[in-house]
Protein: MARVEL domain-containing protein
Amino acid sequence: MEVIPLILRFIQLIFLIILTGLIGNVIALDVDASTTARAAINFTMFVIALSWVVALFGLVAALFQSVAIPLVMLIFDAAATLFTVIAGIVLAAKLGAPDCGNLANDHYGHKWIAYGSADDAKRCREIQAGTVFMWLLLAAFSAALTLAIMSWRRTGGSVRSGPTMSQVVV
Structure:
């Protein structure tokens, strides 16, 4: 049992607990959000659910080496990293850089992602916090992906195919 992958998976789980609460609350308090805002938030929740599966499988693989198949871990971590970066970009692009405490002076359209609940300032702050934790989760998944690539290479996985030079007979 290696310590670094185990610590990374626990960090991912902590970020996922926080993200599930933040984005889940945004979904729960949705009153009249636009369709594009709902789509962005629902995609983010999909990424969180996918990340839960990858993080829990990674935790089991870190605890029990017999489950840790390097190629499977590489694929799972790569998918989670890709979807997490997409969700981070979507949230950041849809939110922008508003002053959540003073939304009256911001001139966003009625289809803006932070509009759509009884308390738009709270929704704005929760989406801002969700964006930050999505980027932190990306850093954790990127580190896990790096370890998965190193593990895959250590077990003999290679981009090159064919015999090595010591196997060639002249």
Observations:
- The two ends are 43 Å apart (CA to CA).
